[in-house]
Design a protein that fits this description.
alpha/beta, pyruvate-formate lyase- activating enzyme, OB fold (Dihydrolipoamide Acetyltransferase, E2P), 2 domains, 5-stranded mixed beta barrel, 3-stranded parallel β-sheet, 12 strands, globular, metal ion binding, iron, tRNA (N(6)-L-threonylcarbamoyladenosine(37)-C(2))-methylthiotransferase, 4 iron, 4 sulfur cluster binding
Length: 251
């Protein structure tokens, strides 16, 4: 892949943090990839809360290491009662402590999560706890999923389903909270320099992502920026992206 010009590899899979093959675990796989010549970036797509090895935190904190400062944790709910009903194998105190340590250890870390609205039996109080958990923890955004029934599943047999209109209302509120936190995160990035990997041009501008997953829009008359690494200054936060100024190309 690297020989064909790939600059960033994204590690993805079901329970990717439990990877094990030929005596190699997730951490040793990351280190093996980091040793590949000319591989600029390694990003973890999503990793279960119970499988995060805190040994990766110093790697993410090291700007010379290709493992990027980004974690997406599918929390699912901010209510311990709902997590138990979902049969999730963790509680909030356990996960919160790890996420706070990550936030304190890794400069400019972007933390994202998944939250589900309207799981069977989720009360108004449970939902309020989820909203407050999302606000209290150092998340930059959340992906929101509205619960929907699936025949034959454990959840489909649970009592006290949440009416669909209430599920949608809760989902809408979570998305508004996510938009506000994402914008706050983007605002906090303004003024600093960042390294971006530039994508194909769209409508006269160049989209890109920083190391910590800030979507960037770069305006340039150049025509040779696709798949280039560049140093930029983050200038102005918009709801969905940050405008950036090109400082130098790094390759």
């Amino acid at each position: 892949l690297v020989d064909r010009g790939v600059r960033e590899i994204i590690l993805t899979g079901v329970n990717v943090g439990t990877y094990s093959s030929q005596g190699r675990n997730f951490l040793s796989m990351v280190e093996a990839l980091a040793a590949v010549p000319n591989l600029s970036r390694i990003r973890i797509s999503s990793i279960e809360p119970t499988t995060i090895s805190e040994e990766i935190f110093p790697l993410m904190a090291d700007p010379a290491h290709p493992l990027l400062p980004y974690l997406h944790i599918p929390l699912q709910s901010g209510s311990d009662r709902t997590l138990a009903a979902m049969k999730r194998k963790y509680d909030l105190s356990e996960v919160s402590s790890s996420l706070i340590r990550a936030h304190e250890t890794i400069p400019n870390l972007c933390l994202g999560t998944d939250l589900m609205a309207g799981f069977p039996g989720e009360t108004a109080e449970d939902f309020e706890q989820t909203c407050q958990t999302f606000l209290d923890l150092p998340f930059a955004y959340c992906h929101v999923f509205t619960f929907s029934e699936r025949d034959g599943t454990h959840a489909d047999r649970l009592p006290n389903p949440v009416p669909m209109n209430e599920r949608r209302r809760r989902s809408s509120r979570l998305r508004r909270l996510s938009s506000a936190k994402r914008h706050d995160f983007y605002e906090a990035q303004v003024g600093r320099e960042a390294i971006i990997l530039i994508e194909d041009p769209e409508d006269g501008f160049w989209p890109a992502y920083t190391e910590n997953y800030v979507r960037v829009i770069l305006r340039s008359e150049r025509t040779d920026l696709t798949n280039r690494l560049a140093r930029v200054r983050l200038c102005e936060a918009r709801p969905e992206y940050v405008e950036a100024e090109l400082l130098e190309l790094l390759d």
